[in-house]
Design brief:
Length: 280
């Protein structure tokens, strides 16, 4: 889980600073530890020197009861994360899987649950990241594809060789915007549809970008106006008269209205077999 990774990196930085006697600005890092009923936000201080930066704790541990069961794991392909994003006010929004939804809760600057801010349930199969602002948040996550056929994938007989047994479902990646508890837009970032299913329209059909059982981690970056989504995806492509499916990465940039922009840095297909897209 990436919040644990952030904790370890911060702890190493603290030790290095205190060993060399260098002063630096403080960082508060929240790490998520989940049980069946709560998520606990935890940080720890390892520095005890009496000089400068090391004189005061800069990383703290806070347990937060989010009022719902938390589903989280460390699986590579079916990763379920707990993600947190800072707010300009000093608080944050934390997102986690629970049942069939992603739930978003607001924390104050002391990592306490803001009771006046209700839980927001977002119907996503899974998600990779959250970006928060004072009015709401953006999530990067998947919804079932609309291709019909076998588990929304279309026709498995288009595929080269034997299709998956048992069958696996197909999804599309979305960026979803909420203002408060109200969804403003949901923008599809992959290309499958009712007329172009994830397994394409035939054995020699056009390429299709979709989400399969391959790893599809993702991150969001924000430039003050637009959001960029970088994520793992699958491509169905005709090779030798049948459909092969490959894993790789993709990036799309979305405007405040939910429109996909023509940003020069966006791309349909980047690194094949990228495997890990958790860095921005």
């Amino acid at each position: 889980m990436r919040l644990y990774h952030a904790l370890m990196a911060t702890t190493v930085a603290l030790v290095a600073v205190c060993t060399t006697g260098i002063d630096a600005g403080g960082t508060t890092t929240t790490a998520a530890r989940t049980t069946t009923t709560t998520t606990a936000a935890r940080t720890a201080t390892t520095a005890t020197s009496s000089s400068g930066f090391c004189a005061k704790p800069r990383v703290r541990i806070t347990e937060v009861n989010v009022g719902a069961a938390v589903d989280a794991n460390e699986e590579e392909a079916a990763l379920k994360v707990v993600a947190i994003s800072a707010l300009p006010s000093g608080g944050s929004r934390i997102a986690f899987h629970s049942g069939g939804n992603v739930i978003v809760r607001e924390l104050d600057a002391n990592d306490k649950l803001v009771a006046s801010s209700p839980a927001v349930k977002v119907p996503l199969h899974d998600f990779g990241d959250i970006h928060a602002d004072k009015n709401g948040f953006v999530l990067l996550g998947t919804k079932p594809a609309q291709g019909g056929g076998t588990l929304n994938c279309g026709n498995p007989s288009n595929m080269c060789g034997s299709p998956p047994n048992p069958p696996v479902p197909c999804y599309d990646m979305y960026m979803v915007r909420y203002d408060g508890a109200i969804q403003k837009w949901a923008t599809k970032l992959t290309s499958s549809s009712k007329t172009l299913p994830p397994y394409s329209s035939g054995k020699t059909g056009p390429d299709v970008y979709m989400i399969w059982w391959y790893a599809h981690h993702g991150r969001i970056a924000y430039d003050g106006t637009n959001w960029a989504a970088y994520f793992g995806a699958a491509i169905s492509t005709s090779e030798g008269g049948c459909i092969n499916i490959h894993q790789g990465d993709r990036m799309k940039v979305v405007s405040p209205t939910g429109a996909i922009t023509n940003d020069k840095d966006a791309f349909d297909w980047g690194c094949s077999h990228s495997g890990f897209e958790r860095v921005t």
